[in-house]
Amino acid sequence: MPYEYRTMTPEERAAVVAYRRSKGYPLHSPPHPYREGGWYIITAANYEHNPILQPAERRTAFEDQLLITLNAIGEVGAWVILPNHYHVLTMVESLDVLSAALKQLHGTTARTWNLEDALTGQRRVWYKFYDRWVRNEAHYYRALNYIHYNAVKHRYAETPYDWPWSSVTRYVEAFDREWLRVQWKAYPPPTSDFGDVP
Ligand code: NI
Questions:
Q1: Quick check: 27 pLDDT over 70?
Q2: CB 114 within 8 A of CB 58
Q3: Helix, strand or coil for residue 192?
Q4: For residue 2, which of 13, 10, 18, 11 has the smallest C-alpha distance?
Q5: How far apart are the CA of 4 and the centre of ligand 1, in A?
Q6: Measured in angstroms, how far is the CA atom of residue 147 from the centroid of ligand 1?
Q7: Where are the domains of the chain?
Q8: CB of 131 within 8 A of CB of 40?
Q9: Fold for domain 38-186?
Q10: Prediction pTM value
């Protein structure tokens, strides 16, 4: 709460609150306006975009760890692991639970990889993660398409099906490519969003 607000009279405060409501502003400006449960798009990058999520075996192991972590607290809708970041669409009971789980996962993996690379105490592995609450079904499918296309967007693969570290292969198994194409046409992904890396 800003200092000015605390020194205001009740009438002045009421006027400020009414003005902010009329503009659709939140009364406070918390870092996470939605802390409740639901679907979230998470983007987490290696510090300074260093490609620490390589070689391939490390991505495979991390993919397992990420899915185990998130399935223990909720559900996973889509994911992609790139050499220096990942995106995941996940449902949780609260953002606090999700934050705590990712913090632990990032801590564990940072220690492991720094040991493997003989960089303990010398390298920061993760940057803070980005989260975005999913507003509705269209937002969900746009995020899913964005995630599946991400390896192509970042020029790691020619098509989404050429990058094994994503949920796209699971969708092909569970549905088919035609189903994915229908979603793609109905909910085209944004060209840049979700806290992605350049
Ligand atoms: Ni990306």
A1: no
A2: no
A3: coil
A4: 13
A5: 41
A6: 7
A7: 1-30, 38-186
A8: yes
A9: Alpha-Beta Plaits (3.30.70)
A10: 0.81
What per-residue confidence (pLDDT) applies to 191? 79
* Residue 98 token pair: 């999700």
CA 154–ligand 1 middle distance (angstroms)? 7
Closest residue by Cα to residue 142 from 73, 77, 45: 77
Q: CB 156: neighbour CB atoms within 10 A? A: 14
Per-position b or e across 60-97, b if 16+ CB within 10 A of its CB: eebbeebeebbeebbebbbbbbbbbbbbbbbbbeebee
| Centroid of chain to Cα 13 | 37
Tokens of 56: 């391939």
Q: If pLDDT is split at 50, 70 and 90, which confidence band does 9 have?
A: confident
CA of 38 to the centre of ligand 1 (A): 22
DSSP structure class, residue 81: E
10 is written with which tokens? 């009740």
Preceding omega of 55 cis (within 30 degrees of 0): yes
Highest-scoring range by mean pLDDT, 4-8, 17-21, 60-64? 60-64
Full strand arrangement of the beta sheet holding 130-133: 74-81, 85-92, 38-45, 130-133
Tokens 């490390």, residue located: 58
Range list of H helices, 1-122: 3-6, 10-23, 56-73, 95-116
Instruction: Report whether 44 contacts 127 (CB < 8 A).
Output: yes
